[in-house]
Amino acid sequence: MNTKGFETLMWNIANGWNEKKPRQAVECFTPDATYMEPPDKQFFQGHKELYEYFGGDKGVEMKLTWQNLFFNESTQKGSGEYTFEMNGAVHHGVAIVELEGGKIKMWQEYDTSGTLSYGDFIKTEGKNFKFTIKELIKS
Protein backbone atom coordinates (compact mmCIF):
# COMPACT_ATOMS: atom_id res chain seq x y z
CA MET A 1 0.00 0.00 0.00
CA ASN A 2 1.16 3.53 -0.66
CA THR A 3 0.76 6.63 1.53
CA LYS A 4 -2.41 7.81 -0.21
CA GLY A 5 -3.99 4.37 0.24
CA PHE A 6 -3.05 4.42 3.93
CA GLU A 7 -4.66 7.81 4.42
CA THR A 8 -7.83 6.59 2.69
CA LEU A 9 -7.90 3.48 4.89
CA MET A 10 -7.57 5.51 8.10
CA TRP A 11 -10.24 8.00 7.03
CA ASN A 12 -12.55 5.08 6.15
CA ILE A 13 -12.30 3.98 9.78
CA ALA A 14 -13.04 7.50 10.99
CA ASN A 15 -16.01 7.84 8.64
CA GLY A 16 -17.37 4.47 9.74
CA TRP A 17 -17.25 5.52 13.38
CA ASN A 18 -18.52 9.03 12.73
CA GLU A 19 -21.46 7.83 10.62
CA LYS A 20 -22.46 4.91 12.92
CA LYS A 21 -21.33 2.40 10.29
CA PRO A 22 -19.24 -0.07 12.30
CA ARG A 23 -19.07 -2.59 9.42
CA GLN A 24 -17.31 0.02 7.29
CA ALA A 25 -14.69 0.46 10.00
CA VAL A 26 -14.33 -3.29 10.65
CA GLU A 27 -13.69 -3.97 6.95
CA CYS A 28 -10.47 -1.94 7.28
CA PHE A 29 -9.04 -4.67 9.54
CA THR A 30 -7.87 -8.21 8.78
CA PRO A 31 -10.27 -10.92 10.04
CA ASP A 32 -7.89 -11.77 12.92
CA ALA A 33 -6.74 -8.21 13.68
CA THR A 34 -5.66 -7.20 17.17
CA TYR A 35 -6.79 -3.85 18.61
CA MET A 36 -5.19 -2.97 21.93
CA GLU A 37 -4.18 -0.26 24.34
CA PRO A 38 -1.05 -1.46 26.14
CA PRO A 39 -0.05 -2.46 28.60
CA ASP A 40 -3.42 -3.82 29.77
CA LYS A 41 -6.18 -1.24 29.24
CA GLN A 42 -8.13 -2.78 26.34
CA PHE A 43 -7.89 -5.74 23.97
CA PHE A 44 -10.16 -6.83 21.11
CA GLN A 45 -9.44 -9.42 18.44
CA GLY A 46 -11.13 -10.30 15.19
CA HIS A 47 -14.02 -8.83 13.25
CA LYS A 48 -16.76 -9.98 15.63
CA GLU A 49 -15.22 -8.30 18.69
CA LEU A 50 -14.28 -5.18 16.72
CA TYR A 51 -17.82 -4.85 15.36
CA GLU A 52 -19.26 -4.86 18.89
CA TYR A 53 -16.57 -2.49 20.15
CA PHE A 54 -17.26 -0.07 17.29
CA GLY A 55 -20.95 0.14 18.20
CA GLY A 56 -22.44 -3.04 16.78
CA ASP A 57 -26.06 -3.07 15.66
CA LYS A 58 -27.10 -0.33 18.08
CA GLY A 59 -24.56 2.23 16.86
CA VAL A 60 -22.78 4.67 19.13
CA GLU A 61 -22.32 8.44 18.87
CA MET A 62 -18.60 9.01 18.44
CA LYS A 63 -16.30 11.23 16.46
CA LEU A 64 -12.76 10.49 15.31
CA THR A 65 -10.63 13.17 13.68
CA TRP A 66 -7.14 12.43 12.39
CA GLN A 67 -4.88 15.38 13.16
CA ASN A 68 -1.84 13.89 11.41
CA LEU A 69 -1.13 10.62 9.60
CA PHE A 70 2.31 9.09 8.95
CA PHE A 71 3.15 6.01 6.87
CA ASN A 72 6.26 4.01 6.00
CA GLU A 73 5.56 2.27 2.71
CA SER A 74 8.54 -0.12 2.97
CA THR A 75 7.53 -1.54 6.36
CA GLN A 76 3.75 -1.11 5.92
CA LYS A 77 3.57 0.52 9.34
CA GLY A 78 1.97 3.83 10.13
CA SER A 79 0.55 6.02 12.83
CA GLY A 80 -1.98 8.72 13.36
CA GLU A 81 -2.43 11.45 15.90
CA TYR A 82 -6.12 11.68 16.72
CA THR A 83 -8.87 13.40 18.63
CA PHE A 84 -11.71 11.08 19.64
CA GLU A 85 -14.96 12.20 21.28
CA MET A 86 -17.55 9.97 22.95
CA ASN A 87 -19.91 10.27 25.92
CA GLY A 88 -18.75 13.83 26.64
CA ALA A 89 -15.09 12.84 26.93
CA VAL A 90 -12.39 14.03 24.57
CA HIS A 91 -9.37 11.81 23.97
CA HIS A 92 -6.15 12.88 22.26
CA GLY A 93 -3.71 10.19 21.33
CA VAL A 94 -1.72 8.19 18.85
CA ALA A 95 -2.58 4.95 17.08
CA ILE A 96 0.23 2.83 15.66
CA VAL A 97 -0.82 0.30 13.04
CA GLU A 98 0.73 -2.56 11.10
CA LEU A 99 -0.79 -3.52 7.75
CA GLU A 100 -1.10 -6.87 6.04
CA GLY A 101 -2.60 -7.14 2.59
CA GLY A 102 -3.79 -3.53 2.67
CA LYS A 103 -5.70 -3.92 5.95
CA ILE A 104 -4.84 -3.34 9.60
CA LYS A 105 -3.41 -6.42 11.32
CA MET A 106 -2.38 -4.68 14.57
CA TRP A 107 -3.66 -1.46 16.16
CA GLN A 108 -2.02 -0.08 19.31
CA GLU A 109 -3.27 3.17 20.79
CA TYR A 110 -2.05 5.44 23.54
CA ASP A 111 -4.23 8.30 24.72
CA THR A 112 -5.22 10.69 27.43
CA SER A 113 -8.70 11.98 28.16
CA GLY A 114 -10.07 15.31 29.24
CA THR A 115 -12.16 18.13 27.86
CA LEU A 116 -9.63 20.21 25.90
CA SER A 117 -9.86 20.87 22.19
CA TYR A 118 -6.88 19.75 20.13
CA GLY A 119 -5.52 23.32 19.97
CA ASP A 120 -5.72 23.76 23.73
CA PHE A 121 -4.30 20.29 24.30
CA ILE A 122 -1.06 20.96 22.42
CA LYS A 123 -0.47 24.63 23.31
CA THR A 124 2.27 25.47 25.81
CA GLU A 125 1.13 28.85 27.11
CA GLY A 126 -0.83 29.16 30.35
CA LYS A 127 -0.20 25.63 31.60
CA ASN A 128 1.29 24.24 34.80
CA PHE A 129 3.48 21.42 33.54
CA LYS A 130 4.38 18.84 36.19
CA PHE A 131 7.83 18.20 34.79
CA THR A 132 10.03 21.07 33.58
CA ILE A 133 13.71 21.97 33.71
CA LYS A 134 13.00 23.92 36.92
CA GLU A 135 11.87 20.72 38.62
CA LEU A 136 14.88 18.87 37.31
CA ILE A 137 17.31 21.48 38.61
CA LYS A 138 15.71 21.40 42.10
CA SER A 139 16.47 17.72 42.53
For the structure shown, list the relevant keywords.
139 residues, 5 helices, globular, 6 strands, alpha+beta, Nuclear Transport Factor 2, Chain: A, 6-stranded mixed β-sheet
Could you give a quick summary of the protein structure above?
The chain has helices spanning 3-18, 22-26, 46-53, 118-122, 133-138, and strands at 29-37, 42-45, 63-72, 77-86, 89-100, 103-114.
Can you describe this structure?
It is a single chain. Helices cover 29% and strands 41% of the residues. The protein contains five helices and six strands, in the order ααββαββββαα. It has a six-stranded mixed sheet with strand order 2-1-6-5-4-3, covered by helices on one side. β5 and β6 form a beta hairpin.
